[in-house]
Target: Phospholipid-transporting ATPase
Amino acid sequence: MAGGERKRKRRKLQLSKIFTLLSAKACFKPAHSQIGRSGFSRVVYCNQPESADYCDNYVRTTKYTPASFLPKSLFEQFRRVANFYFLVVGILSFTPLAPYTAVSAIVPLTFVILATMVKEGVEDWRRKQQDIEVNSRKVGVHQGNGDFDFKEWKTLRVGDILKVEKNDFFPADLVLLSSSYEDAVCYVETMNLDGETNLKLKQGLEVTMPLREEADFKDFEAFIKCEDPNANLYSFVGTMELKGAKYPLSPQQLLLRGSKLRNTDYIYGAVIFTGPDTKVVQNSTEPPSKRSMIERKMDKIIYLMFLMVVSLAFFGAILFGIATREDYQNGIMTRWYLKPDDSTIFFDPQRALMAAVCHFLSALMLNSYFIPISLYVSIEIVKVLQSIFINKDIHMYYEEADKPALARTSNLNEELGQVGTVLSDKTGTLTCNSMEFIKCSIAGTAYGRGVTEVEMAVGRSNGNGNEYDVAAEPAVKGFNFRDERIMNGNWVREAHADVIQKFFRLLAVCHTVIPEVNEDTGKISYEAESPDEAAFVIAARELGFEFFIRTQTTISVRELDVVTGGRVERMYKVLNVLEFSSSRKRMSVIVRDEDGKLLLLCKGADSVMFERLSGNGREYEVETRDHVNEYADAGLRTLILAYRELDEKEYEVFTERISEAKSSVSADREALIDEVTEKIEKDLVLLGATAVEDKLQNGVPGCIDKLAQAGIKIWVLTGDKMETAINIGFACSLLRRDMKQIIINLETPEIQQLEKSGEKDVIADALKENVLRQITNGKVQLKASGGKAEAFALIIDGKSLAYALEDDMKYIFLELATGCASVICCRSSPKQKALVTRLVKTGSGQTTLAIGDGANDVGMLQEADIGVGISGVEGMQAVMSSDIAIAQFRYLERLLLVHGHWCYRRISKMICYFFYKNITFGFTLFLYEAYTSFSTTPAYNDWYLSLYSVLFSSLPVICLGIFDQDVSALFCLKFPVLYQEGVQNLLFSWRRILSWMFHGFCSAIIIFFLCKTSLESQAFNHEGKPAGRDIFGGTMYTCVVWVVSLQMVLTISYFTVVQHLVVWGSVVVWYLFLMVYGSLPPRVSTDAHMVFLEALAPSPAYWITTLFVVMSTMMPYFIFSAVQMQFFPMSHGTIKLLKYEDQCNDPVELELVRQASVRPALVGFTARIEAIKRSVMRSHQPGP
Model:
């Protein structure tokens, strides 16, 4: 216990010292003058939660509540046009106008609505369970008298004092009061909010630092006034009144819900925002009711069908009215068979107009069979089963974390096959938050034989598959470097051993890493603000420069002595730390070595480092630049390392000026600090460059390559800084060296100078004009290139994006973005991510898919047509707000190219077939009604009508939607061009839909007229009786069942045993039904009594007519399909032919298929390799 306590105290001192070097005291700023005014009116009584009346801390992601489920779900069902139509028909079926019984109309509708509501309820209950899990987490809450008890998150109130422990998430937005460190410092990981992996340093106010024990809060009372709830993650303005004095609060004291406490044993904080008021929830939106494009289009088809039903009913009513009016001839009704004596108005020639109106309403109900009532429920069943297949796909199961894919809603399955744009978060989605030191350039010499995924792809393309198969897993996490020239101390024999020594010494000293020694094993581990720094320190250790102790003012390193060859311990006194920032793009430390030399050690981006080299410090500049470019081509992140010796006088002047700048309380304090550091970070001597691989999740580059080949554009929306995002772009092949980067940002010196002077409105107008000018210039460049989209990549920062997304500029920005091959939005807030997603969705008209893993991605996931959450290690908010959850980004390839493609084809074919079979059936009813003088007499028995869509034709089409495959999963991945059928919506275009409808009309006409011609005016059986309505209807119904079943056989691409059973079983069930139903008493079977057993089955005419009619009806489609497959095949048809002819591995044939792509790949491995090939070919061309 004593050793552990000493260790904690030691770490407290270490962290405190680093923070002291980096920070300065809080001060009042102009924004604090707004406290108490509109937008800044929140009042918090710390330790007195009962004094505030704010919302509770319960957060929900469900679509429904117990109170809203029934009305909202009923609205969801009856906003579907078909359901509303059948509701009206069901109500009318209770009137004498109905040509069938009311039960046959109401029961199917009730079943459809209840089944769908149950499905929606089950899906929302799953979301509810996840909400319960999060809201039931516990945290220590002050109960009074200095006692802290664990309470559930949902019970927290504004003003509560919490104790949050290491590696726990903050349950609400808190003001930091104190921590386990004496100066109230804590480390916070905000990756779940802004995507950044580096830890943020937070510090409580000096006045609350002593509150370090639970008992200290017994009598603690404070009064906080601050801004009202808002969505801005990066700002906070408030004041704390304590012991009669006011203290300013800033983002430095704000701990946000969803972020995690790291490297700190515990903190105490006061709750200021709860539940819906927290900033992370303010950045989210209500869970939307998403409907797929196909479902929305299906409504339009229903409208069309309804228009057709009304038109046919209106046409029939007119003819019926005319015939009724002229029905009397010599005082006798010519249509006596309609039994006019039993009717009052329906056939009264004296009231022909009213009879026509009644006929119109009856015809509307009779013709309702054109519209498939079982369509929606069948699609719901199919989608649920498709979702189960997605969930059970072993190829999307992440064994390491025991996480399968999870389709949280089944409404959007077919949308997965139509995605045109993927909008992806970076950290935790593309990357796995791990850096590996893999190469370096020292004194103009390149070291490191490791290979990146990009290099492996190039090697395979050039035929070096064995050499570049799979990169070896590093034995040490963060270190994947292999080069015998400098490993194991061999660097001492290199020509520039002195430079190598300085290079690795700089890596071991220039950082803010904290070492921790395991007292049991003696092994040293490192806790760093960013994975980059950890990788550098680990690399230095593995190569002989082991950083092992940090005190308040010193760093100790064990290193190899060049002269003696032994290991020695050296101590460096740390005088100053000049921290990294996005504007500085570099980090420096000033140290004094054991010889008394003052050294400035600096590492930073090449864009700022080369210009700071001295005249005699550029000896290796040319070679280093070449190496940096090579590393960038390989997708690596690079930093330049340089140093200089300082003289005592220069350092004294610097110390005086930096102290003055840090003590300043003016608004331009940061600018003063930058000005001082700028003057000392110059005249540097170049040592070399590092190259680390921002470790992508396994398979990310390959997945992006496949998606690009499928014609899908990929945008990266990240809260990370621009340099990091660009490096990731190179790593996953979204960017290449030969791409021209259109960079839009407001971080130029001119803009920064402008922001220091002038009024806010004037500055805002100038910034907006500047962004517009940059976008316009980008469009000019794009136009000048002749539309070669592959040559351009758009990169824009968050500040510029705020202006680019304004109403008068957003479509200009979108036009530029869609003209570029890659788009990367950096420093994006969660709200901006959602707005960009909305812009792409509405402006491009394409199906959008957003994918992310953090709470900062929730708005984006909800705004996109499809939201995919990565079920990683950092919380579950993204998953809880997503439509589909997967464990790794690489699974997106299979999710879209396999399941998406299959689901789109299945649902498209299923819907088209549904309308075909119902038009075939319904139009025979209409033709018979026309044949019987529009009497609204149905051609079939009531139960024939009711069971057609339920029993005799529903199961085959459901199995089509579940099991059908045009090609196997292997071929879906091998030929990504197949996916473009969905992107282009080729299988559910109006042309294809109308062609299926036309096919249905033709089939109905052939069936009706051939049956009528075959059976009329001749004896049907050996007794010489002609065919009546019962025989004609039974024969025609049999032909319809056979035709739609055989059409299903021709439509299915992939037969299973189940499909054989249901297709042929439907025909068998029809015959069994005829026998069983016809055998029932006449009061039950009515006009179907013994029709099959006594009339149809014994008659050869029935069987011959059925065979002849079915063959005649199927022949046109069979000929059409054969001609299309042979001479005009679609992509899947071409691949099927290749498979049939065993040419699927023929390079020539494969290239022909790829060339058939309407959208060539512009990014990814394939595009990068092709660009390298073109570059090599150009370099070998003889000069003019």
